[in-house]
């Protein structure tokens, strides 16, 4: 599978298959929304940082208290790390995450006057922000097409043979080459949700998978 920036052509039948998969997932998941609760781009940015190696449900259980104490980047930028750690402890890796959200908030204040930017280049210039987080923000908050590649999307895309890579950026470009731009955000979010609830890592629910007909993964289980 070629990366989106490689210039290598993608076979038409591969594009047709990818679009068919997305169309099926659209029918199964008409509304593919980000499950991290947020009211502003800043809140989603912080929540996405906290979601690393943690469930969205767990993140959603701590962010109300976090944002009640630190409602904006100007407040979180000046936070005592120990105070932030105490609030987010249950999300795991709480010391490094506290540093990350504080440093990111400081970057927002120093570079963008406290406003979350709306371009990939500006978002990834913030401390600790990579392409995955940037694409979450671009799609959910600014309606700009972006392909999210997390552990679920990586697994689903590989099992469907839409990529042969395990590098998130390469997978992003591979999917860009296969999907129409208007399906980048919703399509990758549907892959994410499909991986989270159906195409599980250890015990995939292949028997109830709506895209099973388009899946020729070697490990497919027809009884699940």
UniProtKB/TrEMBL annotation:
Note accompanying the cofactor annotation: Binds 1 [4Fe-4S] cluster.
Class of the enzyme per the UniProt entry, highest EC level: lyase
Catalytic activity, as annotated: 2'-deoxyribonucleotide-(2'-deoxyribose 5'-phosphate)-2'-deoxyribonucleotide-DNA = a 3'-end 2'-deoxyribonucleotide-(2,3-dehydro-2,3-deoxyribose 5'-phosphate)-DNA + a 5'-end 5'-phospho-2'-deoxyribonucleoside-DNA + H(+)
Gene3D superfamilies: Helix-hairpin-Helix base-excision DNA repair enzymes (C-terminal), Hypothetical protein, domain 2
UniProt EC number: 4.2.99.18
Gene Ontology MF, one: endonuclease activity
Domain (HhH-GPD): residue spans on this chain: 50-197
Residues in Helix-hairpin-helix DNA-binding motif class domain copies: 121-140
A Pfam family recorded for this sequence: EndIII_4Fe-2S
Matching InterPro entries: DNA_glycosylase, Endonuclease3_FeS-loop_motif, Endouclease-III_FeS-bd_BS, HhH-GPD_domain, HhH_base_excis_C, HhH_motif, Hlx-hairpin-Hlx_DNA-bd_motif, Nth
Family: Belongs to the Nth/MutY family.
Role description: DNA repair enzyme that has both DNA N-glycosylase activity and AP-lyase activity. The DNA N-glycosylase activity releases various damaged pyrimidines from DNA by cleaving the N-glycosidic bond, leaving an AP (apurinic/apyrimidinic) site. The AP-lyase activity cleaves the phosphodiester bond 3' to the AP site by a beta-elimination, leaving a 3'-terminal unsaturated sugar and a product with a terminal 5'-phosphate.
Protein name: Endonuclease III
Organism: Candidatus Nitronereus thalassa
